[in-house]
Each structure stands twice: as C-alpha cells, then as structure tokens.
Amino acid sequence: MRVKMKLVLSRGLVWIGIARLRSNPHMNDITADSAAEGARPVLDVPARALLERIPQSPGVYRMLDADGTVLYVGKAKNLKRRVSSYFSRALTRRLQVMVSQIADIEVTVTRTEGEALLLESNLIKSLRPRFNVLLRDDKSYPFIYLSTQDDFPRLAFYRGPRKSKGRLFGPYPSAWAVRETLQLLQKLFPVRQCEDSFFNNRSRPCLQYQIKRCSGPCVGLVSREEYAEDVAHTIQFLDGRAEEAIADLGRSMEQAAAALEFERAAVLRDQIATLSRIQQRQYVSGEGGDLDIIACAQAGGTSCVQVFFIRAGRNLGNKAFFPKTPDETDDATLLAGFLAQFYADKQIPPELVVSVEPEERELLETALSQRAERRVHIKWRVRAERARWLEMARGNAEVALKSRLGSQAGYGRRIEALRDALDLPERPQRMECFDISHTQGERTVASCVVFDGEGPRKSDYRRFNIEGITPGDDYAALHQALTRRYTRVKQGEYPIPDILFIDGGRGQIRSVGDALQELGIAGVQVVGISKGPDRRPGTELLWLLDVESPLILPSDSPAMHLVEQIRDEAHRFAITGHRQRRAKARTTSTLEGLAGIGPRRRQRLLKQFGGIRGLARAGVEDIACVDGIGRQLAQQIYDAFHEEAAGP
C-alpha cells in the first residue's frame, strides 16, 4: 500500500512527500461473515510505522483498489486520525467490504476543513467512487437571459457559463419552466425574443408583431423610451418585484385615461389583471427571499432528494434527484453528500430548508458560505408556512421514489428479456445506439446515446457533425461517427459497450463491423434495427453481424420495448442536433460576413429590396444605387450571393 500526500495552496497543488505502504495480507481475507461479526482489519508493524507519516492536518483522502480505481473519497479535520481509524476499529459491513479492497491511499492536505469539504465534493463528482453518495446531475440549470447591453434588449432561454454582459435570472428547475415564463412575459411585456441575426435583417415586422407578442423595435415601430419601460417592468417581474410593476402600470393607466387614451388604458388594465393572477399562482405565501426547500426519502436501496426552487418569493418549480448511495446510508449522510455536490458548481441561495439536519451541518454551512462569499444558513426546524412547504417536498420525494422503484423494476425486466432474446452470457451493463439525421444530405449529424443498468446515461451522450462525405451517404456518415467515437474508447476515455445498436439494416451493420474491425475492437454485440414490412412500431427487425436472417421479436416483448426506447432516444437526439445545426446555418445572413457592411447599410439594403431574397436577385447597378454603397462594394455583395448560390 502507498500513501501519496499533497499540499493545497491558494493557486494549485504541490507535492510534499510520497510514502509506500506494504499491502496488508490480512485485509484481503476479510469476508462478509467477518464483517457481520464486526471484525477489525489489522495493519502489520511496518504499515503502522508508515501511517505515522500522514500529517495531522485537514485534507482529503482517496482509497484505491489494486487496479487504481478510486473506491472512496473522504475528508477529515485530522487526516492521520481518520485514515488510521479504518484499520483500528470495528466497521460496518459496507466499510469492511471497502477496506478489504484497498491497495493504495492518496492524501491531499488542505489549509482548512472547509477547503477539504469543497475539494471532496469536486473529487466525488469527477471520480464517482462506488462507496460514496453519488449525485447524477448531468445538466446545468437554465436561466432567462436579458441582453441589457443592447439598445433594444432581448429575452432568451440560456444554459451555460455565466456571461459578463447582460443579466441572468434563475436558475429554473427545468427548460419547461423557463419557456413557460418566457411565454407569459411575451403576453405581458412585448420585449423581443428573436436572435440578433434575425433582428438586424428585418425590413418589415414579423408574425410576433402581428399577434401582439412584440412591439416591432426591429423596424422602428416603438421608441426606445417605450421599449425601456417594458424592459424595466420585465426586470421587476423577474426580480420578484411584481408589486412595483403593478403600481407603475396603474399610474400609467390613470394617466392614459386622463388623456382620453382609452385603448391604451384598456391594454394596461389587462396587463395589471394578468400580473395579479400570475402573482397569486407563483408566489409562496409568507416568503420574500431566495431559498431552496430540500427533502429526502429512501426505500428499496434507492434514494430520492426533492428540491423546490424559491427565488424572490416565487416558486420556480421543483425537481427530483436520485443519487446513488451505498448501503446503510442514513438521511443525514445522504443530505450532507447531496448538498456538497449539488452546490459545488451552482448558485447557492442564502437559505436552505432541509428535512433532517445533515451530517456536519456547521462545517457544511461554513464551506457553502465560503463558496457563495456570503452567509448561507441550513435550517431543518421550521414552522408555519415553511413547515407546510417542507412537508409537501417530503411527500413529493416519496411519490417520486415510488415511481422510480416501479420504473426500475420494469426496466430490469426489459434488460433481462433482451439478454435472453440475444442469448447473451451476462446481463448487459452498457448499451450504445447510433443514428444519422440530415435533410437531403444537408448538415448531417450523428448521435450516440448510452444506456446502462439504470437507464439513460445522458452525461455520456455525444453528437458528431459529419463533414467530408458525399451528401446523403449514411454508410460513410456512420463509419466516420463510429471511428471518431471508438478511437476515444480505445484511448480509455469511455468503456466498451456490451451492445451496439444501429438504426438501420444489414448494410449499416456491415459498415459498423468494418469500422470496429479497423479499430481492433472485438466482443461487442452489434444489432441493427430496421423497419418491418408494414413499417408499424413493434414490427422492427433485428439484424446481427454474420447472421443472414433477421431476429423477429413479438410486438409485446419487453425486450422489443427496450430496443424501441433506445432507438427512439437516439433518433430524438440526432434530429434535435441536426435541426439546431441547420437553423444556425440558415439564420446567418450573407451580409453579416461581408466587410464594410454594418447595421445601417444592412438595414438600407434590406429596406430597398424588401429583404434578402430581393437583394439576392438584384444586379450590381441596382445595388450600387443604394445610399452609401459604392460600385466596388456592390460588386462584393453581388459576388457573395452568387458564389453561395453556385456552391455545392
């Protein structure tokens, strides 16, 4: 056994020493029976002497097996005392099993226990040790983005790193919650939601203006002052200051009525009524700030944590999480592990209301406060309205857990049925499926989705933009995608799947077989999925490599249901990526890439010719007649459109 020690400084890691410990033969003899009896693993004398080299400092330790796989990551106020305790006291069954597999220990020394907690949560998320509480939270949370730096700001759905320009509101628990809020805002305050490329190239108002969802700033149908008022009211609403917006609208309504502008007064009256209804539906009674309400439930070896997001007193929605937990994990340990990992890379509200006191609550509060750069409180003894919300969160967690257990049982039966149908020696642990999507060969995208023993593993999904092939050649696209994916598999970035599904028939799986053979990958069961004779769902044919006849499963077979689920997910992921790529290409104006064409000249050109199509049909002389466009620039514009039209 070896012990590695690092020292965490403010700007990185510095090695301070390495000690090697001889593996203890007694440790590998620990059995489940001895664990049940509370047996103690005993270190031999040389190992004990080397353990003395571990400092009595705060830090993080990592337990590794003989293959170098991390079994467990933990933090300690005193590393020497904590690591030694695994070999000097009676342990639970779970810890006995873990200790019996330990071959190496790595130690990272930190300045404080709070730093150790933050480092521990980051390592758990990246290394995913099997004996830790693991949160499978693959996606960042969506926000509403307002481009306040623009003359006419736009509202948009946003997911990704925080930007320096503009304002972000949220986070929201789901994309659906963001889109619902954006739809409400369109009805309340007509702030544009179109892309800048679309906005900059308009010569007449679009459909959103016609249905009164936008005030038409692209063509000057609203002044900057009026538009700024709508933006200000939007910010008030998203900041949870709807009362201020209602008061402002009320004053404007009275002024409009006094000036005999009854039509405008009626519009303002309707806005006030809509805002009031939304406020009654979305606001949490008795709450006025930012907080998360968190409750957990456990049963049948599965854990569920339910989180309600409250921002500026508004209930933005809730979401259920199902962290992977070792056996014998109590609620306090579960919540401690969840909070440390969940808020490792997310915005932390000033207050967290939880169903039970998490393990080492004070340390967790300190670490979260340090990360948020302000005080964060964790409360579990609450009354009145918060107690009712906490009880509702607890009930939601129990309902989600029951649903998950039922779903897992059904999913397990489908995997076993697939194993029997394909006559596999073992239950498949990892399945991948590829699909190709394009429109007549344009912007081809290949998708790869991954399913494991628990269901979709979305963090391992990948898309591939296919280039350099004959448009519409699905075989070549599939070959390129597989080569790119499994080159990385050969490099050890991903495990080799047990089953590789392909949306296609005999020709596709032969192409797949050639690609895998070139890469030297063997032992993968390749299955092609083609439509049946009548092309109805449930009548698909399954094609196997080197087998001439297809495998036909009954339409009500659990194995067929699983195959259809995986195939449909690959198709959804591929077509979504293709549409995004195609839309991005088609919304980019030819004018935007030309030197010497700024917003004003672009606006003049589009207004003169009635849009891009009219400009594309115009001759050089006609273009040169536009104010500010000379002969040379007109020729460049003409060439740009006609070179594009002549392209492949």
UniProtKB/TrEMBL annotation:
Domain UVR span(s) in chain numbering: 243-278
Pfam families given in the database record: GIY-YIG, HHH_5, UVR, UvrC_RNaseH, UvrC_RNaseH_dom
The keyword DNA repair is annotated on this UniProt entry: yes
Residue intervals of the GIY-YIG domain: 56-133
Gene Ontology molecular function: DNA binding; excinuclease ABC activity
Cellular localization per UniProt: Cytoplasm
InterPro entries listed in its UniProt record: GIY-YIG_endonuc (IPR000305), GIY-YIG_endonuc_sf (IPR035901), GIY-YIG_UvrC_Cho (IPR047296), Hlx-hairpin-Hlx_DNA-bd_motif (IPR003583), RuvA_2-like (IPR010994), UVR_dom (IPR001943), UVR_dom_sf (IPR036876), UvrABC_protein_C (IPR050066)
Domain of life: Bacteria
Biological processes annotated in GO: nucleotide-excision repair; SOS response
GO CC terms in record: cytoplasm; excinuclease repair complex
Keywords: Cytoplasm, DNA damage, DNA excision, DNA repair, Excision nuclease, SOS response
Record has Cytoplasm as a keyword: yes
Residues annotated as domain UvrC family homology region profile: 293-516
Function summary: The UvrABC repair system catalyzes the recognition and processing of DNA lesions. UvrC both incises the 5' and 3' sides of the lesion. The N-terminal half is responsible for the 3' incision and the C-terminal half is responsible for the 5' incision.
NCBIfam families assigned to the protein according to its UniProt record, in alphabetical order: PRK00558.1-5, uvrC
Subunit structure and binding partners: Interacts with UvrB in an incision complex.
Family classification: Belongs to the UvrC family.
Protein name: UvrABC system protein C
Source organism (scientific name): Thiocapsa marina 5811
